Backbone:
């Protein structure tokens, strides 16, 4: 009996083209990950004079590849993935939203076998943080094909060692004032058409058809935050800026053109602090994109 594969020893790599080699980029996974192929078995289900089902009257059907991975935000990881979240290449550390998003490749070493995913696209990217923890990025990924290779085919790569961002590195500005906030999630939902199979059993394309961006935050309900309820319909610009306190030249900025909030009044939860949870839609304003991300760094 052989030793089972150990999740602790798993690794993941990113690339823009095949094959994976020493130039591929290793990404640290915050477990668990769930990217996998799910295949259908279809059967005729016709009348055969018996209640038994015959294995010969089956074929393999459609194959869908979906799943999620979680990463801690840091300079190199963001430079690697932001073009595939936003749709444009970096220009002077700035990433602009586009109407299409490019595809990429992932390789995951799961011990007994190495899995390669082609035609990957990011369906949802959620930046989030809470007190005392890192700034995380959760990705929901759709892919076209999965291939399985032998153990040992994962290339020799160096795992990133740059300092990740903390939630405590962040400063949130809403309605022109900085705000105390307990947690946040900024979600970029790239709505994809995942059902383009044509006369294939695997997807031949996964195009972007729409995009929705939301910002959710929790605040103390006090006199400093009374202007956050019953806001103007057009909303207002906002920023969320993370300055890495260990590497101060690493600065991640989310600039939101307009955040629209449908009013939700605070309520009394009991014998505790009263919170004001907000969830807004991040929209464009005139010709200004709804969200512009800047990943500034010295190197």
Residues:
């Amino acid at each position: 009996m052989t030793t089972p594969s150990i999740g602790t020893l798993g690794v993941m790599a990113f690339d823009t083209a095949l094959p994976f080699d020493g130039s591929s980029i290793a990404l640290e996974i915050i477990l668990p990950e769930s990217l996998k192929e799910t295949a259908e078995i279809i059967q005729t289900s016709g009348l055969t004079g018996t209640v038994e089902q015959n294995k010969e009257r089956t074929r393999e059907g459609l194959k869908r590849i979906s799943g999620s991975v979680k990463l801690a935000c840091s300079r190199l990881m963001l430079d690697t993935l932001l073009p595939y979240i936003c749709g444009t290449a970096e220009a002077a550390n700035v990433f602009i939203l586009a109407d299409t998003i490019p595809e990429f490749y992932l390789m995951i070493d799961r011990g007994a076998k190495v899995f390669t995913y082609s035609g990957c696209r990011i369906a949802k990217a959620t930046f989030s943080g809470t007190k005392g923890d890192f700034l995380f990025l959760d990705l929901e990924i759709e892919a076209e094909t999965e291939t399985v290779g032998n153990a040992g085919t994962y290339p020799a790569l160096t795992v990133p060692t740059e300092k990740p961002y903390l939630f405590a590195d962040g400063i949130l500005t809403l309605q022109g004032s900085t705000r105390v906030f307990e947690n946040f999630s900024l979600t970029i939902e790239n709505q994809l058409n995942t059902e383009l199979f044509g006369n294939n059993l695997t997807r031949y394309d996964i195009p972007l058809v729409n995009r929705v961006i939301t910002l959710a935050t929790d605040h103390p309900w006090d006199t400093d935050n009374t202007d956050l309820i019953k806001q103007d319909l057009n909303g207002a610009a906002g920023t969320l800026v993370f300055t890495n306190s260990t590497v101060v030249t690493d600065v991640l900025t989310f600039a939101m053109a307009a955040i629209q909030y449908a009013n939700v009044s605070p309520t009394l939860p009991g014998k505790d602090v009263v919170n004001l949870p907000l969830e807004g839609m991040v929209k464009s304003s005139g010709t200004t994109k709804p969200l512009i991300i800047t990943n500034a760094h010295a190197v």
In short: The mean pLDDT is 96.
